[in-house]
Design a protein that fits this description.
266 residues; 2 domains; alpha+beta
Length: 266
């Protein structure tokens, strides 16, 4: 007779001996399962913390609190064929208000309500009054994301381009000479959407009152001959200035931040 682990005795049905084989297998199987689940849990925690850390870096630069508000002034100047003395000029102001960050499988979706509060943009302005979407993915930010406000999910057409030809507009943290942008060696005029494959570089940093303003310029070939695209970005505020200028035929769009109102509790 052999002793069970609980101190009692048992005899084998045929030999009169206790056989602990079933108990051993069951115990070992349970231990292996517990260890496997523990490793899986730790792996998921590691991945989640890594994603959370990356997203945390982004939100240090790009505010996402509900109620954050930006007032921008815009101006476009275009040659309509009648010469420099008769340029087509439009001036207007917009108010952008954060209405929500929401977790999505691709990262975090952030939306701003955009409305025109003064003046009128040109008819072909690309940002009419709407809910403008952003996607935080790892340590990068995508602007003008197609999304469904009803489901709060990224649209299929955007998902199709993500990781194929779409490139992020910003990758953080921002440091001098940092470069990011088009995946897989794009832009390439052979691909279907070369205009979405952009490359950017930090070319300057200005410090004023302990606040850093990062000057970012497009180094992509897409804008074309004579076109320059420059953005100025302040950590914790966002875009404070943006210029798209054609240095041949006059075509300019300038945007400046007039006021930022943070909704962050401090």
């Amino acid at each position: 007779m052999l002793t069970r682990p609980d101190g009692s005795y048992a005899e084998h049905a045929t030999s009169g001996l206790y056989c602990p084989l079933g108990w051993i297998v069951k115990t070992l199987s349970g231990q292996v399962m517990k260890r496997t689940l523990l490793y899986l849990y730790l792996a998921l925690v590691f991945v989640w913390r890594g994603q959370a850390f990356a997203q945390g870096v982004v939100v240090e630069y790009f505010p996402i609190h509900v109620g954050d508000k930006w007032i921008y002034g815009h101006e476009t100047r275009d040659d309509n064929g009648r010469g420099i003395a008769h340029l087509e000029i439009h001036q207007w102001k917009t108010e952008e208000t954060t209405i929500g960050p929401w977790p999505v499988p691709e990262g975090m979706l952030v939306a701003r309500q955009v409305r025109i509060i003064e003046g009128s943009p040109p008819p072909d302005w690309v940002h009419p009054e709407q809910e403008r979407g952003y996607l935080i993915r790892d340590n990068c930010l995508y602007a003008d994301v197609s999304w469904n406000p009803a489901t709060r999910q990224v649209a299929p057409d955007f998902l199709k381009g993500l990781g194929a030809y779409l490139s992020p507009d910003f990758c953080f943290p921002l440091v001098m000479h940092k470069t990011w942008g088009a995946p897989h060696g794009l832009p390439d005029w052979e691909v279907s959407r070369p205009e979405e494959a952009k490359d950017w570089r930090v070319v300057g940093i200005e410090v004023r009152d302990k606040q850093e303003t990062f000057h970012i310029t497009s180094i992509s070939s897409y804008p074309g001959s004579g076109m320059t695209v420059d953005i100025w970005f302040i950590k914790g505020v966002g875009i404070v200035r943006e210029e798209e200028i054609h240095h041949g035929t006059i075509g300019e769009e300038r945007t400046r931040l007039l006021r930022f109102e943070s909704a962050s509790p401090r």
